[in-house]
Write a structure and sequence with these properties.
13 helices, mainly alpha, 0% strand, 77% helix
């Protein structure tokens, strides 16, 4: 019995062990399923986040591309606007010329069409208008190279006048005098518009400021003789003389004085200086010479009356007899003496400048000849030889005495 009961217990124990193992296996499967579900959820979450991140990146890339395209469009528009602004005068001129040509060309074609076949009439009208612009463009090209364009100017206006005459006669005959005038003006106004455009941009290629351009224009207008002389000097020298030096030399040649001083100014100065000298001579006992201090008021370091304290009050004197006016010849002699003194001083300064220029050329190893030196300062070749002789004698004397002359450029 004990063995029977033992076998039954064993079977019961095996059944319990199997049930326990099955329970544990079920638990493990449940845990695995839970872990798998959790992993699937995590994977789905990561996938959704990655998809959202990809969508955000694509959206940002699209926005950046759109912003870049907008920026490129704005830059292109700004560049086109800047170019149009820079060439606004050219565009307006071209538009005006095109309008005038569109008015004049049909009248010429109609005139030739009444006599020739239409293909020949069209070719003839276009050729006549093109001839005007061929001469104008070739003339501008020659002027840019520094050559004369007189022949091309004459050709431009000759072709324009022929076209205007045809338009006036034919237009007046066919459609009335008013249309003929309008068509003729169209043929002439186009070259006029082109010439005014050339004048408006003729000084744009220079590096000078607008103020310098206006100053040069006024200087040429007010001093035409000096401008012509300076231009001739630059033409006559190789390489061309510097513009400032040419102007200064031309002024001395024309006015025989420093730049800014003219014969009229010298006469006016001499006349006023003579009057002041005569007044000072007549009233020499009145005190100091007139100066601006008489009108500036008192200073802190002066008495209350300022410079007026320096003027001695006159003692009462009996009335003087009527003064006779000064003798005119004496005044004229004083003025002549003043003029002569001023001229001598000016000549001496000119001699010093000429000798200094010759000394500088000697120091540079390229001595100036007497003809060139005299021409530069507006004097004769003999005058220049005297200046050269004076410099040579001065240097020879210094060499005999053992002295060393400092070059003129280094001395300055």
């Amino acid at each position: 019995m004990s063995q029977i009961y033992s076998a039954r217990g064993a079977r019961q124990m095996d059944a319990a062990t199997v049930a326990k193992a099955n329970a544990e296996a079920d638990l493990l499967r449940a845990q695995a399923a839970a872990a798998t579900g959790k992993a699937d959820v995590e994977v789905e979450r990561v996938r959704q986040e990655a998809a959202a991140q990809a969508r955000r990146e694509r959206r940002q890339e699209r926005e950046e591309n759109a912003a870049a395209r907008r920026e490129r469009r704005r830059a292109a528009f700004a560049r086109i606007g800047g170019q149009m602004g820079a060439h606004r005068v050219t565009l307006v001129t071209v538009a005006v010329i095109a309008l005038f040509v569109s008015v004049a060309l049909p009248a010429q074609i109609d005139f030739l069409g009444s006599r020739w076949a239409w293909p020949m009439a069209v070719a003839g009208g276009v050729s006549l208008e093109s001839l005007t612009w061929m001469f104008a463009i070739q003339g501008q090209r020659r002027e840019q190279r520094g050559l004369s364009a007189g022949v091309h100017r004459a050709g431009t206006w000759s072709a324009a006048l022929v076209a205007a005459g045809i338009n006036l006669a034919h237009g007046a005959e066919m459609w009335g005098f008013g249309f003929g005038v309008v068509a003729a003006v169209g043929s002439l106004a186009a070259p006029v518009a082109y010439e005014t455009y050339r004048l408006s941009v003729s000084e744009d290629d220079t590096d000078a400021s607008p103020e310098e351009i206006r100053h040069n224009r006024r200087r040429r207008r007010h001093h035409r003789k000096v401008h012509r002389a300076a231009t001739r000097l630059r033409w006559a020298t190789v390489p061309p003389m510097d513009e400032a030096r040419a102007w200064e030399t031309a002024w001395r040649m024309v006015h025989a004085a420093e730049p800014g001083v003219t014969r009229r100014e010298l006469k006016r100065h001499t006349k006023r200086a003579g009057k002041v000298a005569q007044l000072v001579t007549e009233h020499a006992d009145a005190g100091p010479l007139p100066s601006l201090e008489l009108f500036t008021g008192p200073r802190t370091d002066e008495p209350a009356n300022g410079p007026y304290e320096q003027v001695k009050p006159r003692t009462p004197q009996p009335p003087k007899p009527t003064r006779t006016p000064p003798v005119r010849p004496a005044r004229t002699a004083a003025r002549a003496a003043s003029d002569k003194a001023y001229e001598e001083a000016e000549l001496e300064r000119t001699r010093q400048r000429a000798e200094e220029a010759y000394a500088q050329s000697l120091d540079a190893g390229t001595p100036i000849g007497p003809a060139a030196l005299g021409r530069e300062f507006g004097f004769s070749e003999g005058w220049a030889r005297k200046r050269i002789k004076a410099v040579d004698e001065r240097r020879a004397t210094a060499a005999r005495q053992g002295l060393h002359l400092v070059p003129a450029a280094a001395a300055r």
